[in-house]
Amino acid sequence: MGPKGGQPYRSLSQLAVDRPDRSAPVAFAMNGGMFDAEGGPIGYYVEDGEKGKSLNTNEGFGNFHLLPNGVFFGDTNGKWQIRTSTDFEQSVHDRPDFGTQSGPMLVIDGNLHPKIDPDGKSLKLRNGVGIDNKGRAHFVISDEPVSFGKLARYFRDTLKCPNALFLDGSVSSLWDPEHGRVDGGPRLGPLIVVEKRTKADT
């Protein structure tokens, strides 16, 4: 997503400045997936039902390619889902309202990603999203540097999410309007904006 000029937002502060023009109030926003040097998604991306990027099944280096990676997707009036990219490619045929591909998966059908150490030495600020058994999305951002394993266990054991997806590390950022928090830092790519429901939505 981006401002009227079409280029993607590269910071939450830029989004916060432009957002008052929109009618629905923002509950929160955070970075939402891996991106290239220009801020564009490197994997599957759909916004408002329009596909911006096809599913990326390439092999490579880095967190995104620590397979399996996955897709967080759903419709604004329905349940949310997280599936591995392979499962998504094979079983999802209707384009969702929103979708973003990232990686690696943190939790897969109740099991931790097989290539993630239980509590590795790499500690960073990290964020991710998990889906519980009711189809509700749980977004998490760490207050201090954590390992992949600790973040994954939090989704599985505390939030009871059988599936969870890593969104990013180091650049992990949050805009929380209610509490006046707008994180700065490195330039961002795809953003996930969660709006508060209005009376017309209920």
UniProtKB/TrEMBL annotation:
Annotated Phosphodiester glycosidase domain residues: 26-173
Pfam families: NAGPA
Highest taxon, organism lineage: Bacteria
InterPro entries: NAGPA
Protein name (Swiss-Prot/TrEMBL): Uncharacterized protein YigE, DUF2233 family
The organism of origin for this protein: Novosphingobium panipatense
